[in-house]
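Task: sequence design from structure.
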């Protein structure tokens, strides 16, 4: 084969190899460009329609965020200079601290405000009595409310949407007693035999508002798929806190207890549910600040504690009442006079009044017969 032909064949072979390399490189570049195009425009539409979409619109207005934003953050970090470390506080701990501050400040503040404004209150119930007799029970109430009410999980209670309803309800439930129509209790005897007509209308309007709120919570629970769990919570808390005392004819449905129990279950992290819970916690604070954490069983509880504890002395405004528990008759209404032990008259030898002990008679709402409590 002539040398010229051999050289020509070699050149053609090299050119073919170069063409293959170029083709492979171009294919690789096209693949890369295609991948980039797919990432930028996964729908495969033209460039004019593949521009990035606008950011989502906020779900609430700036005005609304004023009422749902925490005054202080739910998370803090504490520097420890000695160890050159920073320790983050758990969010639930910060929320618990906020709730404790709001509750304590609310009770102490409204305890003073109610008395300063001259609203109806228990005149002998002071801070010393609160600390001595009620602090333990109030702490358990607050702990249960914080746990079952999802205070550890939801946004902290230091939002205007929570604090404003709380303050308004804590004030209103004392201010309303300035009208005589509201100076009644919530018990079967009072409702059926004592309440004036105007109070029935007010109670009906309040019950209607409560019903609407309950329906809203039920719908919310169904949408979030937690209805069964929340229903079980209501059943269990009712069985523990309501059923045992509610079965007694001496049961008194104090407004602090109603607000505490219902507020347990207004526990969704949405503005209207949080506002409802804040309003109810304000009613609880009002009851404690104005009257103390009165027993749900009224005089029956005091009677039981006196007998069960075999109390030898009772005091009323500084005067002693001497009682021999073994001789205290149950089922009879014998008078116990100040400073002079038991007697069968209405006064002691000096004509002082007495306290009557003996059989406790529950009020009968069917016959409108008042009881001894």
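Answer:
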């Amino acid at each position: 084969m002539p040398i010229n032909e051999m050289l020509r064949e070699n050149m053609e072979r090299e050119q073919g190899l170069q063409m293959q390399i170029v083709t492979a490189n171009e294919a690789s570049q096209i693949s890369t460009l295609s991948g980039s195009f797919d990432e930028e425009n996964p729908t495969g539409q033209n460039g004019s329609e593949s521009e990035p979409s606008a950011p989502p619109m906020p779900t609430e207005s700036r005005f609304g965020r004023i009422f749902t934003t925490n005054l202080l953050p739910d998370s803090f970090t504490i520097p420890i200079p000695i160890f050159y470390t920073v320790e983050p506080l758990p969010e639930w701990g910060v929320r618990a601290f906020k709730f404790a501050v709001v509750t304590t400040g609310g009770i102490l503040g409204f305890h003073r405000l109610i008395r300063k404004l001259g609203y109806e209150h228990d005149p002998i119930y002071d801070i010393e009595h609160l600390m001595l007799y009620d602090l333990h029970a109030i702490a358990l109430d607050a702990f249960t409310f914080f746990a079952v009410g999802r205070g550890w999980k939801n946004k902290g209670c230091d939002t205007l949407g929570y604090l404003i309803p709380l303050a308004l309800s804590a004030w209103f439930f004392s201010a309303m007693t300035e009208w005589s129509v509201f100076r009644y209790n919530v018990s079967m005897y009072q409702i059926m035999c004592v309440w004036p007509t105007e109070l029935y209308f007010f109670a009906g309007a309040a019950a209607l508002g409560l019903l609407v709120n309950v329906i809203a919570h039920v719908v919310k629970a169904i949408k979030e798929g937690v209805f069964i769990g929340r229903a079980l919570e209501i059943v269990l808390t009712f069985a523990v806190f309501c059923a045992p005392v509610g079965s007694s004819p001496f049961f008194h449905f104090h407004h602090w207890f109603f607000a505490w129990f219902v507020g347990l279950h207004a526990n969704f992290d949405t503005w209207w549910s949080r506002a409802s819970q804040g309003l109810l916690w304000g009613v609880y604070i009002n009851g404690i600040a104005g009257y103390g954490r009165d027993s749900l069983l009224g005089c029956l509880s005091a009677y039981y504690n006196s007998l069960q504890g075999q109390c030898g002395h009772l005091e009323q405004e500084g005067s002693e009442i001497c009682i021999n528990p073994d001789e205290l008759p149950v089922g009879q209404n014998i008078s116990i006079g100040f400073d002079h032990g038991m007697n069968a008259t209405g006064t002691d030898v000096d004509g002082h009044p007495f306290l009557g002990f003996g059989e406790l008679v529950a009020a009968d709402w069917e016959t409108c017969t008042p009881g001894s409590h």
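The two ends are 132 Å apart (CA to CA).
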